[in-house]
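User: What would this chain look like folded?
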Amino acid sequence: MAVTQRMVKMSPGLLKVMERAKREPEARFTSLAHHLDEEALKRGYHRIRKKAAVGQDGVTHEEYGESLDENIRDLHKRLKTKRYRHQPILRVRIPKGKGKTRLIGISSIEDKIVQQALREVLEAIYEVTFREVSYGFRPGRGAHDALRTLNRVLRKEGNWVLESDIQTFFDSIDRTMLMEMLRERVADPSLLRLIGKCLHVGVLDGAEYSEPEEGTTQGSVLSPILGNVYLHHVLDLWFERDVLPRLRGMAHLIRYADDFVIVFEREDDAKRVMGVIGRRFDRFGLNLHPDKTRLFPFKRPPKGSKGKGPGAFDFLGFTVIWQRSRGGWWRPALRTRKASLSKAITAVSQWCRSHRHQRVKQQHATLKRKLAGHYNYFGVNGNYGRLMVLYRCTRRIWFKWLNRRSQRASKTWKQFADLMQDYPLPVPSIRVQIWTTP
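Assistant: Here's the prediction, encoded as structure tokens.
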């Protein structure tokens, strides 16, 4: 595994932990808590975004940093003497569309620092343990890497696809099982105790206080790596050790956090796995969504064939299809998922409406950032058309809400075009190469 820039910034002690974890895959680490020193806590503080949401204590990143050395020294002392207590998590609801919301937990700045330091220690052990099939929340890896692997697999052996969705994954993690998984590599009781504090923490939802018995807090710094540890045992190792040796053809698992697909060469292998994967997840308290888990053929059509390709499926915000090239070859292609595109357009509309009285220069700066962020992720080759849809919709939406700033006469499209000369919106561009030619 390549050493990433984030790993290089680890302390020399943690780099030695990583080297041993790689050299001894079955080793159990009995002395880890001492790596949570003042320097590790300071690194944790500096990794937190300056404008990160504030927890229930109301202390901001800037306020905590005004007496950083003193605060870190006090926090480290409480950790060493086991007097540290995790404050309740503030629960907020983020709209998901169609009237649904996603529950996010916001920790206090001090708890975020501890979680960052814990994540660094666990990352030193598990980054060399996790399998290549895992891409989510790992240094040096990302969604585009998962999509490139999917492209390669579909071209070579993509005859059948198992698409799945884990219901409320982070809320369903069995904490007892998770701790047992951690004990296979972590044998330091002090560190395990501290992880337990971060798991068994109260939640403040408005005026209501509760203490959930299952799951990890979505939005917590620690949750992504703990989720990866859980699915490493539930799915990745099971697929590698128990599934692949029993198959007659090739099969490939591609997982990004709790979102995964499995691509099969043979239909009989695909059906066998489909028949047992639900029971596998049930054993660990996880449920696959019955309406979003399906097995379907996805074989490349023969060259020169007419009509559409064999269906489509969604993965990481994209819809994956077979598309004919100009030379008549069929190749995998990506389109921004309709729900993702609709969400982006709605977000622009809501922002323009609520900020229409800002100065044009300020509105322009924000819209540029929003479009650039969208292009950075969805600007993959073959997806230019969907990028243009967002660009054109943004222009129309901005024109609409600029005209509702006052009761005065509205701008004409010609006047708006003149304004766009001074405040141009970034036009779509392909920024990531995912799909290669046949």
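The chain has a mean pLDDT of 92. If you want, I can go into more detail on any region.
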